[in-house]
User: Fold these one by one.
Assistant:
Number 1:
Amino acid sequence: MAINIYQDKIFALQTKNNSYLLKKDENGLLSHVYWGKRIDCIADFDETTQRSENSYHLHVDQTMEEYAPFGGMRYKETALKLEFCDGTKDFRYRLTGYEADENRLELILEDVFYPCRVRLIYQVYEAEDIIRRHTVVENFGTEDIVLEKCASAQFGLAGCDYRSIQFNGTWAKEFFRQEDSVRGGKKVYESMRGSTAHVANPCFILHREADEEKGEVYFGLLAYSGNFKVTVEATPYDWTNVVIGINDTDFSWVLKPGESLETPAVYAGYSAEGFTGMSQRLHRIQHRYLMPKKLADQPLKVLYNSWYATYFDVRCEEQKKLAEKAASIGVELFVVDDGWFLGRKDDTRALGDWTPDPDKFPNGLNELIDHVKSLGMEFGLWIEPEMVNENSRLYREHPDWIYRFPNRSVLKGRNQYVLDLTKEEVVSWMIGMLDKLLSDHDIRYLKWDMNRAIGENGVYGKHSAEHKMMWHTHMLNFYRVVKTLRERHPDVEIEACASGGGRADLGAMTYFDEYWTSDNTDPLDRLSIQESYSLLYPAKYMRAWVTDSPEERKVSLRFALHAAMCGSLGIGCNLNALRREELELLKEQITVYKKIRMTVQFGELYRLKSFETDGIQAVEYLRGAEGVVFAFLPAGRYGKNPYCVKLRGLRADGTYRVNCQGRVLEKSGAYLMEVGIKIQLHGDYDSCMIQINNMV
Ligand code: DGJ
């Protein structure tokens, strides 16, 4: 049983290795009492947790509440803020009941006077050591209730000695890992852009002296692609308070009589085995439960994307030539990026007019699609459905379909406006447009882009509380569009992209088959991005392309290939301009990748070495008896060779065949993990791939 309950007051969520315990305390508060290594005897927690109280420090503020409402002399960060029809802003709750089955617990908090109920819902994934939490707020009265904050979850961690990891970034610099101690006050990580964005990821990671192999790590990821807020607060009472959910800035939600609001879920866990333990728990839950089912168990195809080869200058004949080259090197999916639709010559025009441009495709898009198919590949297309340019037919016909304020000029980002998805006619148009595009053409993949943030939180003709419902309504309708499309076209693979990696979150994972990680394809930058990204998300969900060397740096094609082979491989070079040897190298490595991709995309991931601490980067993937290691040297150092890479996760008593830089070795797992493999990496931008095989 994953749920254990003691005397109707202690609730334990038990996973394979961990326990998460709650308690109805002496003051009737639902408090958090333990999260860590598994403890089976939960009766041991039947003791007072009461702290001494004085007029400035009341129990409500001191207690690690499981879901603290605003008010009642609470000054810590709270999870819920609401207003009843008479202006009362205080949710005074009692735990009035619970429901439990094998893996699910639901705790009911009810106001002592007003007809309002909060349901805290927990789903336990025992084998994966993950707890899923979300919250539902219900109005069962006859008057409106206005929610001003409704977080998905709150967590209390004993002690205030944590370090917090986040991923601050920007376009082309996604997943820039930052780490700080949490002492004294609050840290807030958030997005107010109407999307996940690059500046932070909707997650918390708090650790105590953790490294890749050891140390305690607490973590939680929010499954939401809109405005989010994560607050980490070191309280003065020696515990750390974490609140995670939809951002309450400019948020409100009117609950009419009989209505309820369900928050996005948080997937949370504890690892006593450092960051590897965290990543592997997260990767497993995503593979097993979150990725869209259709492709969850299948490896992603090697794709070619023409963006860096042609930018907006898409022309049928040139694309056909690219497709021929792509097929000849082993590509399986050919994708035309931005620039294929009516009048799109640059980024100032045409978004919204999603029909093939007759100047570029005089015989329609099907001519290219048929050609691609005749070469044995599938066809894919770029699209940015949530946006419109002023210079477009769609905008000229529907200038009122965008977010705007009546007496203000409309803000532009990348010359475009955001369509107002709170309007039902816009939602219907979008579903109809996408449905038609996919029905008229044999398109098997979409790269769904989003290249600007929402700037105007304006919805025509609405004001105050209802007005602020726009952000979340936008998200719900965005998900509805993608969900409807998937139902109608279940065979179409969809990639989430937002100016690179601005839409990498577990909310998007429910609807999209993969994420575009970054527009930065410089292999060295990319390896750092990939390393941080892998803390949260699996390699399969990380589209990685080899492109022509960007201007900053000339990097060998082999190094670039190896870097991209660490994820779901894509090719973005201008194949028409490559030399024969380069095409041959691409072909050779694509063949290799197809043999190892099950291991890379589905294997357990170990970060063995990092540029920052070790001068090289090495990453290992292990799946059953097969393993792959990639190692990268950015800049050679005289006299440094050989580099020694110790493997992880092997059976100490197993025997492994190691294929490394032309040598075939047979070694025990214990030797490979304790002594390691010696590799030679020379000069600047050298790399190698090692294959391992468990023989017995
Ligand atoms: C931003 C994406 O991240 C790029 O890969 C590319 O698709 C461009 N948009 C196209 O406009």
Number 2:
Amino acid sequence: MLKGIPASQGIAVGKVRKIEPPVLRIIRTTADPDTELQRFRKASGETVNDIEKIRRLASDRLSPKELAIFEMHLLLIRDASFVNGVEDIIRNEHINAEAAVQEVSGRMIHEFETMDDTYFQERAADVKDVTFRLLCHLADRALPDVKLIDEPVIIVAKDLSPSDTGSLDRRFVLGFATELGGRTSHTAIMARSMEIPALVGVKDLMNTVKDGDQVILDAVTGTLIADPSAEQSAAYSVYADAWRGERESLKVLKQEESVTRDGHHVEICGNIGSPDDTGSIIANGADGIGLFRSEFLYMRNETGFPDENTQYEAYRSVLERMEDRRVVIRTLDIGGDKQLAYHSFEREMNPFLGARAMRFCLAHEDVLRTQFRALIRASAHGKLAVLFPMIATTTEFRRAKEIWLEEREKLKQAEIPMADSTEIGVMIEIPAAAVIADQLAEEADFFSIGTNDLIQYVMAADRTNDKVAYLYEPFNPAVLRMIRMTIEGAHKHGRRCAMCGEMASDELAIPVLLGLGLDEFSMSAGSVLQARKQIRSLDYSETVPLARKVMELSSQEEVIACIKEYMLK
Ligand code: PEP
Ligand code: MG
């Protein structure tokens, strides 16, 4: 039995599909040209089959533009100059197919990378992708690709990137387990919003579990059982039914208000990563969407930044489906652990402290302006609020807002329909912003506290780094004081303060946050009803002194003990 961190609750039983990209060592050798030509042609054929299969499987999930990437890959692998180039080298130089492929693709990559046009520069990534797939086939090690999955499986991997996670097909992927990762990594966050059971940080996973093994993935208690006995399987099936039954019973709260026993109202909203997640937000009766992480639209696109219309359609569909419920869309928060296939970020020593999110957008104004135009147009279709991520200074906020107003004015002149006004909020996830919350609140319409980042910056402990996970303390007094400062700063100017980091759904945090006056709790869809149940069982008048008491304690351990004591009463 292996232990891990439940990143997305659920229980799954099934066959393992191990995703382990092979490590290739290409050695240039002299070889018989006829044999090498045959090997090259066979591997090319297999590569074409892979790409066609991915295209077929993904056709109903991807936009025409996204599907075009696979056309591009097919063009590349069949491209006469590529094929002839490799075959000529094999014939003339008598070297193995691997070395010939590497030589030709290396030249193509260099040519693309040195072109002036960004479109062509981005094609270098396509050549790298196709070549790696081809080299894997030459090594008789088909590239295990999550996009190729077409039967029910549980994925087991060292790690999955957020964009791999975003491309998982919920029809086939019953769940996943990874050796690396933590609860607030973006892979975990994606799994929660897609409602795929997931276990992360499972030590020794890759050494213990084999491809094809039968496993029980219990992402409720955090265990993975390989090759379960008949008794274990039977016991799990009873337990899984009970767990599902309990979750089902929460559905009676779908239409109920998010209100404490003594009549204090809050909002419990949902976090989404894609328009597809809106269905589960509605199914779980959330009061609105408190965070739409728009960057996942950018990460799913494989060919380039999504254009204005693609974004407009995505935002509009969410706003329309949510009808009169408020939808907070966060502008592009890229960088750190969130990368784009088509854009190479400059190498940075500390990417989490680097040019990510709004910093990146202010340095790439065209990207920001395109998103703003899409959002302004979408505002005509529902109750939109816009949230700026990673704001550290009032200057950044003012500049971003100025750009917003410029784009708004241009669209107004062109008589494009839009809402009369749109709330603009600030994410409080950098300590500097928490400290000047009262000043930011004079200019921003609302706040949303991003504790996933705020904790890592307050504690100087990278949220994706296992070695400092012990310092990543949500209940550390320093973090709690930052939260209190933010709420007080917002309320001083009559602004609403939300929280959209993972802490907002933590059963132990909820009473304290309530007592501190938090107005809105935003979380993955699967947590909404449980949080509503808890809020409805609490007395606001009791949580205020609890919060006050907790604020006087000097360690996370003491804080947790104090909250637990209160909850047992
Ligand atoms: C956060 O930092 O708390 C947050 C909600 O944003 P993300 O997890 O996407 O960084
Ligand atoms: Mg964040």
Number 3:
Amino acid sequence: MTETSHAVIVLAAGAGTRMKSKTQKTLHAIGGRTLLSHSLHAADALHPSRIVAVVGHGRDQVGPAAETIGEELDAELAIAVQEEQNGTGDAVAAGMTQLEDFEGTVIVTNADVPLLTGDTLTELLAAHTEVPTAVTVLTMRLPDPFGYGRIIRNEQGEVTHITEQKDATDAEREVDEVNSGVFAFDAGVLRDALTRLNTDNKQGELYITDVLGIARDAGRPVRAHIADDARELAGVNDRVQLAAAGAELNRRTVEAAMRGGATVVDPGTTWIDVEVQVGQDVTILPGVQLKGRTTLADDVTVGPDSTLVDVTVGEGASVVRAHAVEAVIGARADVGPFTYLRPGTVLGEESKLGGFVESKNATIGKGSKVPHLSYIGDATVGEYSNIGASSVFVNYDGVNKHHTTVGSHVRTGSDTMFIAPVTVGDGVYSGAGTVIKDDVPAGALVVSGGHQRNIEGWVERKRPGTPAAEAAKNARESAD
Ligand code: UD1
Ligand code: CA
């Protein structure tokens, strides 16, 4: 453990039964990160000497998830196991087993408070260390405090203790200042108080909240730090609160993009994950979802109605009504409308992927175009080539996938089939309806299929009585 004077314990051992889910509560996601990940990233922003994640219920899911998130963090992450979920006090005690020799400030947060920011934790830590304090609880005032622990103060306005909803008297339930579940503790005071907790309460659990009363009774100073923005401290206990937290997080993320110089025409239908980067003078039209590690360079236009997942979009590109996953769209490229970019699509500068085109594992060079109704998979296309409408890169023989290589300045006719593996040289032309099975040398015109044959009178002879035969008869008679 490196020597800084504060550590963080993140509680993530609770059952989360109100989610009614196979997935552990803290592994539900908003803004592209799990609740657990949000809480660990907020803790990391404090630059603590160590972060301890306390896992218990569903720990076969939560433990490995925490380890994976730990790899993205600057701070060292330790996992503590709370064997039985005997309450938040017991959970903090489990966390302290990973901080045995630690002296300084222990910050405790909950993994189910995803909007809590590193800035707010930093303010709490500053408030706690400004004057000698044994415990500082982060509180908020709520119009409807139901369900939360109430902050009880004496006539001098000093915090004396916290009373849980279920244990509160009618008078205490009137109190609108509540416990956010986030605390700063002096490590020594916390260690001592944890040995004094008891289960004499309605839930029969060890409450971390009781540490305040114990510390104060021992003559140690206990204070509250009231958060400016209660919405940041909203806990997620069920799916209704999950959606509300997701909407609030998104509102903040979209607002940050606008403050950074992006135009968002309809913030209400724009969803941006927290790790997405949005450049200046980007325009986002209604119905856009930017997910994962998507990056939009300056002057990009996206939308309406587009979803980009882990997509990199170059400067000045335009993406209209597209669905793209793990793709790269080059500067000033033109995508859409109604275009599906699957993983491994790499579009060069000023290239185009037009309407009803699907691509996968395809590199399309600078200025090349696939404008209409085509499938381009497992392919490399050079620069300034044009793939005619309704073409298919036939990459799959039923067993294996094969690659097609098309050179630069190629002009293929409509309905060209590229039967992979095949290579088409630079400057090649193909006739409409060509089936390219063999390599085509540079500069050739390739055509396939025999000459057209018209078998006169076939419809009237072979399909008598049909509307087509009737039309054919009428045409013949009026020509006679
Ligand atoms: C808790 C607080 C309450 C506060 C509220 C804020 C207590 C007794 N009550 O109530 O004062 O207003 O948070 O949201 O602390 N957990 C464990 N192990 C356990 C029990 C819980 O790790 O044995 C974890 C949960 O995963 C969760 C956190 O502790 O992250 C809070 O537990 P929860 O049951 O949600 O507490 P609340 O009833 O919300
Ligand atoms: Ca809770």
